[in-house]
Amino acid sequence: MSEPYFQQLFADRIGGAQYGKSTAIYKFEKIKRAKRQALADHPERQLLDFGIGENDGMADEQIRQRMAEEINVPANRGYADNGTPVFKEAVARFMHREYGVSLDPTTQVNHCIGSKSGLAIFPACFINPGDITLMTVPGYPVAGTHTSYYGGSVYKLPLLAEKNFLPDLDSIPADVCAKAKLLILCFPNSPTGKTAPREYYEKAIAFAKKHNIVILQDAAHAQLSYDQAPNSFLSIPGAMDVGVEMHSMSKGFDMIGWRLGWLCGNPLLVKAFAETKDNFDSGQFLAIQRAAIAGLDDPEIPKRIRAKYKRRLEKLVAVLKRCGFKCEMPGGTYFLYTPSPKGLADGPAFENAEACSQYLITQQSICTVPWDDAGSFLRFSVTYEAVDEAAEDALMAETELRLKGIKPIF
Hints:
By secondary structure, this protein is α/β, with parallel strands linked by helices. It has 13 helices and 14 strands. It is 37% helix and 15% strand. The protein is globular, with a radius of gyration of 22 Å. The protein starts with 26 loop residues before the first helix and ends with a strand.
């Protein structure tokens, strides 16, 4: 059968004339396939899913109740465009209460349809062909993907254990700094769980000023901080001069799927984002924005969510340590990023984290996410479904039962 004429029309950014012909399988698709196979091969065995990267709980009852009310308000039916002032005002209250950051809700806050959408839009404000975005690996690739779409390129900053999982700004060559326009940071970091000390933010701000670079700090996990109080990049002197911060209603408020976040910080950068966003979407449903206010104004909601995931992580770390894994409590997020075993005492050997992850899912029905970008690591997520602490303990007991005899070697 002949190819359709439009096979030659696909943009180079998605593969050009070769689009759709690749047989490569994306990492997360491999995991999905392995999960389906594990369920088929071992229907008698519970799948222990530590691979999920989204909150397992529903949004707080008061948020859902507010949504039930707002969905019937006629004034909420229209386009939101760049958002409703009352949501921006709630964001400003939240940022001041939680982080001591003062914002003008009119000029320094703009909503987005989730932080993924915001990270996709922001490069359009700056990237021309030949420009560079500085990004960490492993990391969330969206801003880098869109940098490439605009003819730019990504310079990767590996998150190495020997560097305490902080991107090494001093290692960036001078010619790269000269072409760089954006530095994408993410703290608490996904997937390493690293939180940023104040000194690192200060160094990043000085770096940005020296090289005329804009910082976008991805704070999607900001409320899930354990080794220090939740903080904001914008609370550091000088941050407002060089950058913005992207927040999400997902991780800290259980509003996964509601698709709502915000960008805040330097007013000119926020203005550029808002004007660019106008050409991408017409805003998130106003009822969702108004429902989110109930979450932003209640400090107990993120506290409860933070306590839950901290408790789960502590339990998981204890279990894995007893089973011979080398891991420590992360600084933040709901991810545990732990070195991948090189093999098992009685075999097999693992070439990389992906091989280990495949062993765990196929032989133990334990799902993890492998990362081989900067060393070999496994990411365990504690967003598994468990209705109460008793269910958590039962899942941990089953995990320990399956892993205690495999004897990992490093």
